[in-house]
Design goal:
The chain is of the alpha/beta class and 248 residues long. It has one domain: 4-Layer Sandwich (Purple Acid Phosphatase, chain A, domain 2), CATH 3.60.21.10. It has 6 helices and 13 strands. The strands form 3 sheets. It has a 6-stranded mixed beta sheet with strand order 5-6-9-10-12-11, covered by helices on one side. Strands 4-3-2-1-13 form a 5-stranded mixed beta sheet. α5 (145-171) packs parallel to α6 (194-202). The longest helix has 27 residues, at 145-171. The radius of gyration is 17 Å and the shape is globular. The chain binds fe (ii) ion (2 copies). One fe (ii) ion (FE2) binds next to loops.
């Protein structure tokens, strides 16, 4: 029995791809074939796979059905975290998604899932991604202050959602946590954030995140150990479509 994770599948069986790199980059060519092949050879039916957001380009459920069917056909239990491109998923209506698709697909929001004696907690997260203004040497000397102010509101809301997930798990008697975010826990200017602080506060053993894809984005945030927490990027192109084992 193992726990695996990967993010940013950006499936599009019934919808239009909206990213240039996904249309042009060799890494994305037939990525859904590469990924399902990797899952079939790696995962067993008693394994758990956490999909860390940006599941589908579909804007509404009717445009996601074939993407969900693809996910449903992967081996093991599937848990989904919300990504910024998942327009089909209104956080406040997560209960409805679970009514429609459980037990095959489990949409995690303001709640937790159990893996052995661990609680799987998470939310989309958020981090300020600019625009940043660079000098002639490529160093950041300023950024869009209006966008930054807006970001803080989204970050606060996501921190509240994350705390609800942790508190639900804690109330359920759990004290071992694996924390999932779609967005990286920090942006390119930060060394820590409300998300890293919360991971440390609850003693999460690992923080798993995605969203950073394309070669230039892989090192936007924390990788490896910081203050006793292990951080791992699991965006699909970074992992070359092989899900990462998180726990045995
Ligand atoms: Fe993405
Ligand atoms: Fe994303």
């Amino acid at each position: 029995m193992s726990l695996y994770a990967i993010g940013d599948l950006h499936l599009h069986f019934q919808s239009e791809v909206k990213s240039k790199s996904q249309r042009r980059d060799r890494k994305w060519r037939k990525h859904e074939v590469k990924f399902s092949g990797a899952c079939q050879s790696l995962l067993k039916e008693d394994d758990t796979l956490v999909l860390v957001g940006d599941h589908s380009w579909g804007r509404k459920l009717a445009e996601c059905e074939e993407d969900f069917e693809y996910i449903r056909n992967l081996p093991g239990r599937k848990i989904l975290i919300r990504g910024n491109h998942d327009q089909f998923w209104d956080a406040k209506k997560t209960g409805r998604l679970n009514e429609l698709y459980q037990p095959e697909l489990n949409f995690l929001q303001d709640s937790f899932e159990v893996y052995q004696d661990y609680a799987i907690v998470g939310t989309k997260g958020f981090t300020f991604e600019g625009p940043f203004y660079l000098d002639h040497r490529g160093r950041i000397f300023d950024w869009d202050r209006t966008e930054e102010a807006h970001s803080w509101k989204l970050i606060e809301r996501e921190l509240e959602r994350l705390r609800r997930s942790f508190e639900a798990a804690k109330a359920g008697g759990f004290h071992k946590y694996i924390m999932f975010l779609h967005y990286p826990p920090t942006n390119i200017m930060e060394r820590e954030s409300g998300f890293t602080e919360m991971a440390e506060e609850y003693g999460a053993e690992q923080v798993i995140y995605a969203h950073s894809h394309g070669d230039l984005r892989y090192h936007d945030s924390i990788e490896g150990e910081m203050n006793g927490v292990q951080y791992h990027l699991v965006s699909g192109d970074y992992l070359q479509w092989v899900p990462k084992k998180i726990l045995d």
